[in-house]
């Protein structure tokens, strides 16, 4: 059964046409950089949100003299949409900040998808101005979907990163394994997660992470749903797995706690996000996180 | 239904314990760099294969004076396993070479998994000796799972890349859409594929790639299986999707051809890989490619 979240998972549901064929076409790209083109307004890496609750756009005239422009795609009217990479922008490889959580909850789905992609790209450019191969400077290429080394002996091409992360609901006899990181709000528990490493499959990464963080062995890993998560460039791959032995050994460098919750506790915690009840066993992950959908999917099974 | 390939998909089935907790423990790591430790022999980025058909290992005494060492993990005897990053190694972001195809077909599964992870890491180090943020040199950290900028005003941390790629079987009324790239051997057709970009889900990437490359719209994307593919650092995410309209428009910058094949043609082509028959409608992707497993899975449905 395919999981069809409704509403769609946050940061998915793109409304721009990425028009990939235009990126390498310098003439076409120049032609699209006209007075109709739209420039996404950013406050550093944060979105600028208008009185109507939507993203604010300007024109290319709003770009700084030394800004590099990333081509995000075409909107439904065929206008080219860009995001600015300001020389002052130093990027931020850190996690989402609480101020952004409001934006994630309130922005229209299409706007959030546009912002997520733009943020990941602008952040990548800001943190990749030099060539990792030779140390020379790089310049933006292919409409912002590449950086190219200006050293003619190198000419290395660099591409934006997307870092696959596994995040998993783990089940043992009708109970669900959830953990909390020290930086979580009080009582919040969520699905365990970790980066997929070179040389391993998604299923192997799930098994390794659950064992590393909680000392639990899992089997029958299956894919449930995914979410691009631009803090800074993750692709959250949501999976489900089963455990045969509930004994937990917590890796305290990663997690503050990890526990099994009953189905009733999970159901109550998910309902409590709507009712505002504060007396549950834990506080569930918010609707804009893929972990929320993993819990929702699990309850519905 | 979970797909359980037998034998497992190439490059999966790791036999080393990654022992992640050791990476950041400099004392423990130094202790493991003893006379029992094993050093993977590499010819540039290619594997060195012994008369027994397995990977060849040496000791740390075989490392070059200026080699950096990547900690791959612990073997079943608790010996630490390393791979060398030689200063002469310039890395290679290109695709697999025909000489490697033999190794992929012949190496024991565990060895191939070890080699794949090691190659991706060594290649990444070789191509990331400088800081993308400031241009200074970087040095290996966390046992080779990080590079850190030596510029004390920067100190940026860089991590090995894993690039998620979607690869998909697309079905229309019992037929399968396959394409061929100009660099393929004669008559070879395989599943379409493309990188997941910042700001999109796996399902969105599948739909975008199939439309870009073949002009076909798909629905009901589902995950089937995945494979780490170290040329240079891909995570191949195999999916299946359905099309309602068979009209094809080929993007000639990406594909030489794309066609629908009947179920019988796919079954024959997969059998022909074993029998050596050359009169099929096309030559199927080889067993070490995840595309092969997508076709196998589809036939078995």
Automatic annotation (TrEMBL), chains A, B:
InterPro entries per the UniProt record, alphabetical: NAD-cap_RNA_hydrolase_NudC (IPR050241), NADH_PPase-like_N (IPR015375), NudC-like_C (IPR049734), Nudix_hydrolase (IPR020476), NUDIX_hydrolase-like_dom_sf (IPR015797), NUDIX_hydrolase_CS (IPR020084), NUDIX_hydrolase_dom (IPR000086), Znr_NADH_PPase (IPR015376)
Entry cofactors: Mg(2+); Zn(2+)
GO biological process, one term: NAD+ catabolic process
Domain of life: Bacteria
Gene3D superfamilies linked to this entry: 3.90.79.20, Nucleoside Triphosphate Pyrophosphohydrolase
UniProt entry keywords in alphabetical sequence: Hydrolase, Magnesium, Metal-binding, NAD
Gene Ontology cellular component terms for the protein in this record: cytosol
An MF annotation (GO) of this entry: NADH pyrophosphatase activity
Domain Nudix hydrolase positions: 160-284
Record flagged with keyword Hydrolase: yes
PANTHER family, A to Z: NAD-CAPPED RNA HYDROLASE NUDT12 (PTHR42904:SF6), NUDIX HYDROLASE, NUDC SUBFAMILY (PTHR42904)
Recorded family membership: Belongs to the Nudix hydrolase family. NudC subfamily.
Name of this chain's protein: NAD(+) diphosphatase
Source taxonomy: Bacteria, Pseudomonadati, Pseudomonadota, Alphaproteobacteria, Sphingomonadales
């Amino acid at each position: 059964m395919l999981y069809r979240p409704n509403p769609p998972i946050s940061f998915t549901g793109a409304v721009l046409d990425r028009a990939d064929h235009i990126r390498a076409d310098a003439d076409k790209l120049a032609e699209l950089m006209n007075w109709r083109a739209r420039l996404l307004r950013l406050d550093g890496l944060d979105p600028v949100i208008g009185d109507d609750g939507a993203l604010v756009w300007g024109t290319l005239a709003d770009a700084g003299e030394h800004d590099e422009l990333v081509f995000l795609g075409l909107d439904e009217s065929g206008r080219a949409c860009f995001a600015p990479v300001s020389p002052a922008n130093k990027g931020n490889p850190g996690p989402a900040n609480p101020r952004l959580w409001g934006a994630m909850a309130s922005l229209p789905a299409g706007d959030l998808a546009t912002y997520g992609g733009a943020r990941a790209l602008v952040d990548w450019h800001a943190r990749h101005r030099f060539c990792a191969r030779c140390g020379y400077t790089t310049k933006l290429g292919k409409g912002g979907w590449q950086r190219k080394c200006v050293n003619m002996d190198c000419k290395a091409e660099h591409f934006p990163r997307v870092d696959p992360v596994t995040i998993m609901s783990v089940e043992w006899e009708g109970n669900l394994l959830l953990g909390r990181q020290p930086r979580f709000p009080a009582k919040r528990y969520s699905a365990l997660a970790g980066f997929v490493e070179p040389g391993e499959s998604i299923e192997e990464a799930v098994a390794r992470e659950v064992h590393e963080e909680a000392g639990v062995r899992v089997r029958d890993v299956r894919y449930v749903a995914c979410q691009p998560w631009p803090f800074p460039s993750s692709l959250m791959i949501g999976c489900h797995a089963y455990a045969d032995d509930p004994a937990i050994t917590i890796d305290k460098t990663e997690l503050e706690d990890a526990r099994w919750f009953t189905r009733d506790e999970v159901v109550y915690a998910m309902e409590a996000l709507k009712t505002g009840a504060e007396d549950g066993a834990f506080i569930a992950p918010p609707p804009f996180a893929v972990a929320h959908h993993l819990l929702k999917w699990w309850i519905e099974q």
